[in-house]
Design brief:
Blueprint (H helix, E strand, L loop, with lengths): L1 E4 L7 H8 L6 E4 L2 E6 L3 H18 L5 E3 L4 E3 L6 E2 L3 E4 L10 E2 L2 E7 L5 H5 L1 H6 L7 E5 L5 E7 L5 E7 L3 E4 L4 E4 L1 H4 L12
Parallel strand pairs: 5-8, 9-10
Antiparallel strand pairs: 1-3, 2-3, 4-7, 5-6, 7-9, 10-11, 11-12, 13-14
Pfam families: Uma2
Organism: Chamaesiphon polymorphus CCALA 037
InterPro entries: Nuclease_put_TT1808 (IPR012296), Restrct_endonuc-II-like (IPR011335), Uma2 (IPR008538)
């Protein structure tokens, strides 16, 4: 999904929730301002779906919950809310809320050209405020490439780049899988649309 600044007035978080319930599309809420979540590409949608299904199937029967891009994430100790492409929470505190989760251990963003810099920069800075977050995954929708930002025992973040033939390891949920699982059946060659 692509976030685009709306020309709406600044809202309190309560006003944002009431306002968004009446909207046809989703909006992230950062610093009192709302950002439309516009549609992405077919590859973006399919990769997010495959990644979410993989995680949900793996976690079936556990106390963890997988959510898609319809689930808001509250940035810890703020009134800011985002819509990552996929999130996983295993935290009991998130089972008592209905409009958002706050303590995901794993977040996935499928990258687009227009949001990649924000996903790697400002959005990741916000997500790092969460003491429970262990894995932040950024997935390319144009080539077989995944960047995993993993929190180390010392609290710093390391980056691991995965490419074709690699096995991805998500320590937050004890899952390993070949990168090809999330790209299966997806054409990564640019398609020229006819007019």
């Amino acid at each position: 999904m692509v976030a685009v600044r709306d020309n709406t007035p600044r809202f309190t978080s309560e006003e944002y929730f009431a306002w968004e319930e009446k909207q046809l599309e989703k909006h992230e809420y950062i610093g009192g301002e709302v950002y439309s979540m516009t549609g992405g590409t077919v590859n973006h949608s399919r990769i997010a779906l495959k990644f979410g299904a993989l995680l949900d199937n793996f976690l079936s029967g556990s106390s963890c919950q997988t959510a898609n891009s319809d689930c808001r994430v509250n940035i810890v100790e703020s009134n800011d809310y985002t819509y990552p492409d996929v999130s996983v929470t295993c935290d009991e505190r998130d089972k008592t809320t209905t409009k958002y989760i706050t303590y995901p251990c794993l977040l996935v963003e499928v990258l687009s050209q227009s949001t990649e810099a924000y996903d790697r920069g400002g959005k990741f800075r916000m997500y790092r405020q969460n003491p429970v977050l262990q894995d932040y995954v950024m997935v390319s929708s144009e080539k077989m490439e995944v960047d995993l930002y993993r929190k180390t025992e010392s609290g710093s973040w390391e980056i691991i780049n995965y490419q074709a033939g690699d096995t991805i390891e998500l320590k937050s949920i004890n899952l390993t899988f070949p990168i090809e699982r999330i790209y299966e059946g997806i054409s990564l060659t640019p398609v020229v649309e006819s007019s």
